[in-house]
Amino acid sequence: MNNMSYRGYTARVEVDTDDEILVGRVLGLRDVIGFHGRNVEELRQAFHEAVDNYLAACEQLGQAPERPASGRVMLRIPPEVHASALIAAQAAGKSLNQWAADVLQKASRG
Fold first, then answer.
1. In Å, what is the CA distance from 60 to each residue of 29, 34, 53, 64, 68?
2. Are β-strands 34-37 and 9-16 bridged in parallel, bridged antiparallel, or unpaired?
3. Which residue has the higher pLDDT, 27 or 72?
4. Do both 45 and 95 map to the same domain?
5. In-domain check, residue 71
6. Whether residues 57 and 88 fall in one domain
7. What is the 3-state secondary structure (H, E, C) of 22-50?
């Protein structure tokens, strides 16, 4: 799986072997933003156009566009998991927030 980024939005890129095209979809949104191209340059241009068109449509409708992530996460976890995480963070010499950000970053890389 490959990713592309533009204006703060990230898209997943896959190969459609049936149609022999590259297909992309913007990640992290409820709205569906998809695009495709016959080669990487076409795909990149289609991605940029899709994001620009999405932002323009939101503006015309008077709606705020969805943003991929604000950087704030609210988690509800069992108290014993919270306690274990807090101890792990303290043992690492970090705040719980710093420790959790590190763990999530490592886990999201695969």
1. 19, 20, 10, 10, 20
2. unpaired
3. 27
4. no
5. no
6. no
7. EEEEECCCCCCCEEEECCHHHHHHHHHHH
Distance CA 23, CA 61 (A): 27
Residues 88 and 55 in one domain: no
**b vs e for 11-40, b when ≥16 Cβ sit within 10 Å of the residue's Cβ?**
bebeeeeeeeebbbbbeeeeeebebbbeee
Note the pLDDT tens digit of each residue in 9-64.
Answer: 999 999 999 999 999 999 989 889 999 999 999 999 999 999 999 999 999 999 99
State the residue range of the domain holding 7: 2-61
8 Å CB contact between 48 and 5: no
Of 26, 98, 106, 109, which Cα lies nearest the Cα of 69? 26
Assigned domain for 11 exists: yes
**102 inside domain:** yes
Q: Are residues 45 and 94 in the same domain?
A: no
